Amino acid sequence: MSWIDIAAVDDIPERGARVVKTPVGCIALFRTGAEEVFAASNSCAHKGGPLADGIVHGQKVTCPLHNWVFDLNTGQAVGEDARIATYPVRIEAGRVLLDGMAVDDRSAA
């Protein structure tokens, strides 16, 4: 894997999100705990709502437009037949690293 440094953990509010630009478009970083961050599409699979503006709860995010809930581990919508893209991340020395290979693979698709 080729890891890309994309943000400081402290730049993402706990139970909140920030958006970063990548080759596949804007990706939302969701901080669900002190040392737990997920990366996923910022666009809701339902109506394209900005998920980074949604409510982060547990390991899920609720879209601010129509209340669709997405599991940040899998991208699967809860109770719906839809999903959003998710991306592998890890935290090292207070920095969020995104798997560059996963981003490159999806930008080629």
From TrEMBL:
Keyword terms of this UniProt record: 2Fe-2S, Iron, Iron-sulfur, Metal-binding, Nitrate assimilation, Oxidoreductase
Domain of life: Bacteria
A molecular-function term among this protein's GO annotations: metal ion binding
Positions of the Rieske domain: 4-98
Membrane spanning stretches: none
UniProt record, GO biological process: nitrate assimilation
InterPro entries: Rieske-like_NirD (IPR012748), Rieske_2Fe-2S (IPR017941), Rieske_2Fe-2S_sf (IPR036922)
Protein name, per record: Nitrite reductase small subunit NirD
Source species: Ruegeria sp. PrR005
